[in-house]
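Subject: Predicted fold for BTB/POZ domain-containing protein, 475 residues

User T.R. writes:
Posting the sequence so we have a shared reference for the thread.
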Amino acid sequence: MATKFHSKLLEDLSLMLTNANDYDIIIQVGENQNIKEFRAHSNILRARSSYFERALSPIWITKKDNMIEFKKPNINPTIFEIVLKYMYTSEVDLTNQSSEDILRLLIASDEFLLEELLKHIQVYLIENKPVWVEHNFIHVLYTAFKLHICKELQDDCLEYICDDPQPFITSKEFLLLDKNILYGLLKRDDLQIEEVVAWNYLIKWGIQQIPGLRNKNNDGVKWNHEDYEKLERTLSKFIPLIRFTEISSAEFFDKVYPFKAVIPNHIFEEVTEFYTKNTLPKTIILSPRIGKYYVESKIIKPGPISIITNWINKKDAKAIHNKSDSLYKFNLIYRGSRDRINNRSFNKRCNEQEPILILVKCQNSRKIFGGYTPIGFYDYSSQYDDDYEYSIDDELYLYIYCNDSFIFSFEENDDVQNMKLSRVTSYMNAIHNNYNIGVEYNCNYGFGFGTDLEMRESYGKYKIEEIEAFRVTKI
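User M.O. replies:
I've generated the structure tokens; pasting them so everyone works from the same file.
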């Protein structure tokens, strides 16, 4: 095995930067009264940044006295000094930098195509500067969406809106919102808003984008055919993101129908049939927004929750939510990384907490497993060993009767339509009675769904990386 001495290498590279006697490039950054020159080595810049690899190609460089001259007036000297140190040493210290400079550094990292640094800065802003981000939200939001690979900060901004969208969508900033940001917002399943409200504000936003419509009434009464055509073109990419089947029939005919001219014919026909004939749409199959079923999970994204909710309601995964369907709240009662992954901890927090939803992420695998039981789990044994490794596997012991339990599995980040469901086939063998297992068979379990999904000591096909349990209550 090779021995690596990275610390000495980084120390030597740092000396090359501070004592750049053999430099071959002078970089001038800043403008007006804030200009500074930096001396560097073009080979290091090319190796560390694909931006410099192209910018310093023989075709583009300018030389004077055999020295490369390079200017970047749009980059602040303080910011470029941090960037340059990172490229030489892979080190960056943001603790004493202002929040505004950290955001400038994010922009510079994107421009110089330093993806590793950009990802670090995004996480730093999210985790260490949440108050500043909130106070400067619009500025941060637009900055994040100007940078195409700034996905973490984009998602954080959109999540912030989704958690409480009302203040944002009723603000003047919403009507001026960039179309890419609006698309990303309406696309999200966790936008906690009534669908008819989303529709109303989409129409208001569309009208604002068309100068000729701003001075007319917003209800379309005095519009001509050309006005509707302009609005249709403006909203064409957004209409398919509206969950029309989540809008009541009365709201549909009061709020949506007057603007039927902007809705593509196939969508309008399917939605109309849904309201008049109760026929499920064939092409518009978006799930309800998960704000109604929000789950504080580190294991799964919002998408699968609507499917799990359908299964709890004994409906097909793709079924459209109806107003008569039960809605649920999922309260986190156990998380392995927080409460320890062992049977004692699980049983202490989850026993007699019915109904319960279990989610399991496995080590070295994209597999995610889960199970739901309306009757919960029971375990009155007291002998546990916290030093075991815990896993999930299958084995037959003693059970509690239950008709409505089910288990499921899917691949992480996979299409939610590919989730696999298994309902109870033998209600007598649905849920393990952990008391009998622990005492009679000397084998403790955290949970057990039939013979197919169990949390147990010592061995198993999959090792648990994270496990979560939620108490499920009707809203």
